[in-house]
Amino acid sequence: MSEPEPTLEQLVDFVTNRLAEPDATRMGARVASSPELATRASRLRDIVEVLRGDDGAIPPAAEIRRALELLPIPTATSRSAWLDTARRSAAEIVFDSRDEPERVGFGGPAFHVAYEGEAGRVDLQVRPAHLPNERIWRVRGQVSAGSDARIGALVVREADSTRDVAVCDVDDDGGFRIDIPAGAYDLLVAIDDRRVVLTLPGLVIGALEPS
Fold first, then answer.
1. Domain assignments of the chain as residue spans, ordered by start
2. Where does 81-205 sit in CATH, by number?
3. Which pTM value belongs to this model?
4. pLDDT, tens only, 8-21
């Protein structure tokens, strides 16, 4: 018998690190195995940070629920249909801190990866979202394109697949943040009103499950 979907309150407790063990580990495993839950958790984390008071207090669940009603969580599929019509521009990895950890100063499992292509450059900083659990990883990125380029959404897609895992917006300065499970991914960034997609292939995060 399958487990019921987590309640809003349970997900809020998870993203704010208020779940005690073993519930935190169990919820982390569920979020890691479900792209939709991972997308919901990432959006909830953003909403909680926006609604936090000056004293850093976590807003009540009722206030978060009202924010969700005004800003619903879109599905990955509904936000990435434009990928099929955009021109692709491939990027390549030009730097990976995991290749020389003693020189770049990234400790533990955290790492920095940079991609460059004709359409632009993307720098990624990746670290576990909840230590010591390494099932969910936080990816912070910066997209650099031409001075007149308009940068849109970021799509996280399973490597060598057409299955979208999550979608997030890129801010006006080219920055973004998203939480995703450990895995192998291709990242796709919309540029110039989604007419061009900068593709970042082969991003491997965390220890992959044996096939």
1. 8-70, 81-205
2. 2.60.40
3. 0.63
4. 788 888 887 888 88
